[in-house]
Structures are given as structure tokens and as C-alpha cells.
Amino acid sequence: MAIGRMGAVELLPRMTAWCAIVVAAIIMLGCSCTAFVLPPAATTISETKKHCNVVLQNKSSDGEDNGNIISSQLQRTFNTLVTAAALFTTALASPVNIHVHTNEPVITIEKSQAYALNENQLFISDVWFKVTTQYFDQSFNGLGESGWRAKEKEAFQAVEDTGPDDDELVTDAIKTMLSALGDPYTRFLPKEKYEVLTAYATGGSAKAGIGVQLLEDPRTKNVVVMATTSGGPSESAGVQAGDVILKINGEDMTGASAEIVAAKCKGEQGEKVDVVFLRRDENGNAGKEYLKSITRAQVKLNPIQTQLFTTESGKRVGLLKVPSFSTETVKEIVNGLRTVSDDGKLDAIAIDIRGNVGGYMPAGVEAANLFLPARAHIIAEVDKSGAIKGYDADGIGADTSTPLYLLVDGRTASASEIFAGALQDNQRAVVVGSKTFGKGRIQNVQPLENGGGLAITRARYITPKGRDLHGVGIIPNKEPSHCESADSARTCLADIV
Fold first, then answer.
1. Would you say 166 and 124 are in contact if contact means Cβ atoms under 8 Å apart?
2. Is 266 in the active site?
3. pLDDT tens by residue, 105-159
4. pTM higher than 0.70 for the full model?
5. Residue 300: how many CB atoms within 10 A of its CB?
6. Residue 355 contacts residue 377 (beta carbons within 8 Å)
7. How would you label 468-493 residue by residue, b for 16+ Cβ within 10 Å and e otherwise?
8. Is 179 a catalytic residue?
9. Known catalytic residue: 207?
């Protein structure tokens, strides 16, 4: 958009000039006009004078300078229009400030302090503009409009003398600017991180990896393995959910984001990557570090696993393990339900979303739609203006009667919480396990012209009963004593189903 690309530094003086020209023309039409200092048609103010002053002076009618007075009203009007046109052309050619003094009709045109933005500043301006127009908190974390604009100016100053090869400086300036929002989910994504994130959402992988799902623990700032892909390289190497990644190929990952760690894990198929993990004990205390040399492979990030088991009370339970939400998840849930029900009627359905950190938000909404009657509320988004957009079930083909159980834990987040919150609030499912993570914000992830991306928190969501889960999470209906990530679904449900 033109306004975003021009930048605030340059736009305001131009708008000031255009508005002042209209005022100037009105003043001149009411004045007895004499000499006009007009720049040539093809010149700008800077080419004519360093400071160009156009002065319209009221001359006395006692005969002084009579030879220079144009008596024809028509000629005065014509000169007025020519002057206004010249001012307009000049304003377009160079940013200016125009001051109108009404006591004695004087128009002063001065060069403004506006300056041209370099390419890196234009890129920062584009990022700033996108966040400004989409961010859900229009107080900008209490900064206000002027404070948030000041952050853009600081970023401009940080890259004022940079060139096309200074990507790292530009990235640091953008990160510093966005950090002022206090929102870890609104972030700049360099090219490799953007590819990882979009691949995760679509259920594919642009490069070979080691078959892990990762999440940054907000308490320790460590990147934790949330789940391993069934049959993938990490599972084969003995990596477990809850393991912390400390080093990759000798590089310390302390303080690195989940996107950076994921990008470091990826590479060419068949290559080995050395990863140092930390496995905690049962009480969550630091345990033993161990090194694994893992061969990268093409893995499907989020296959749904199915299982049929019978409880001690003789009930047949169809189990679906959903490790993440992507564009393929709803189709896989439907196929999974068909698989577990092929051998006959089910007494209950169990969906295990422990360790599921979310992913593609609409998939969480669509998955809830599979189990709710028509017109049941699923979720409501609240945007920057406070407008509410609701999502309701359509009831088409939904299973609204088979008893349903959801297994959750502290790593169940985002789209998974949308899914679980909708089913819990509608009393359609019994939520079993421990309190969920508590991420109640929705992001837009969009590409940038440099190949990277930008994630912007555009809204918060509330459950059908109006709960904002951010920082709070979902409290389960049942909290069995044995339902840790390593425990089977059968163990979690032993005394419940």
C-alpha cells in the first residue's frame, strides 16, 4: 500500500502542502495581487532557491509602484490560478511545509526536514504498517499511537546507514521494534523459519527432518520435544516427549526459539545431525544429558494414529491420537473414526491431544464441528475493534451421541484448546488429564517480500461460555492420578470409562 511504503516521515509534509495550497488559493483570490515569484515550470524549490518565499503584499493605492500594478481583475485571477498550480507542482516534486499568515497575506514555502527512506527502512515501514493495521491491541501494549510510532523511528535510525547485505541488522531492528508489544506470538520470521511454520500448518515438510514437534517452554525458555513422529528418526533413536534440546551439531540452543531449533534440525535427506538432549526425572528435575546422532528423513508431521481397545468393564473404545492440527487433520479424523468403527459399534470415542501444541487454527474449529449439533457455538473471535465473529456448527454428518473423551495435558495448546473448549462448554465431551497450556490468541502468518514472514496476533478468542483461556488454560472434568504423557490412553481412562 502506498502509504505504508512512503513512510510516515515523508507523508505528513506532503499532505500539509496539498491542504495549504487550497487555503492559499482562497486567500489570493481575495487579495490585490502584484508581483509573483514563480519557479520555472520544470524546476523545484531546491533548484530555484534554498529557501523560496512567495510574498503577496497589499500595495497602497496612492500611486506608489503604479507601473507594476495590474489593474485587470481578470489578470489577477489568472495569475492566482497559475501561482496555485506552480505551488501544487512544487509540493509534488519535493516535501515541503507551507505556512499561511493571515494578518498580512503572506505565504512562506520552506524546505521540510523530510528525507528519503532507504530500502531497509522501507521494509521496516512495511512491517510496522502491517502490524499497526492488524494488531488486536490498539493500545500497543500501553505505548499508544505516538509511542508505537516512536518504535518505528528507532528502527529507522538503527538501519539508517545499512545496505542490501545487512540482513542481520535489519532483523535485529525489527525484533527490537516488535518486542515493545510484549507479545511473543507477534514476531518476524526469517525465510527458513517461515518455511518451517507454513510446512507445519499444511502437514508437510520443505526439508528432511528428525520427526519431532517442538514448543518453547515459557517458564524455562527451553525448547522441548512435545511429540515424536511415529516411525520417524527421533522415535527410532529413543527420543521421548518432554526431552529438552540443548545443542545441535555442537551449537548451543539456549535461548533459541522453537522455530530456530526446528530449522537447525532440518537439512538434506540422509544427513546426520548430532543433538544433545536433557531428559528430566519424574518430578521434573534436571536429569541426564545424552547425545544422539540422528539421520534426517522426509517425515509426515502429523499423522493420526488409531487404536481399538476394550476397557476392564468390557466397553469398546475407539482411540485417535491427534499430534497436531493442520489442513489435513479433519479428513484424517474422519478416516480414523471409520477405521476404529469398522469392526462394530463403539461404546466410546477417545481423542488424545496430549502434547498437541495446535497449528492450523481453522482445523480446531472444523474438528469440533464433527461432534456438535447444528447451531452450537464453537468459538468467537474478538478483534482489535472489539467486534465479535462467531463460529457455529453446521451439524452435517456430525456424531452427536457417542460418548466422547478428550485427553489433555500442560502441552495441549492453541487450536487444541479451541477444540477441547468447544466440546467441554457444550457438554459434548469429558475432558480428562491435567490443565492445558493456555494460549488464547490467534495469529495471521503472512509472507514478506524478502521471502520471510510475519506473524501478527490479530484477535483473541473466547469459548462458547465466554471464557478467555489465555494464561489460564482448560481445567479438566476428570484428573486421574495416572495420566502423564508416557501413560497410555487406556491407563488414563481406566477408572472413567
1. no
2. no
3. 455 554 444 558 999 999 999 999 999 999 999 999 999 999 999 999 999 999 9
4. no
5. 15
6. no
7. ebeeebbebeeebeebbbebebbebb
8. no
9. no
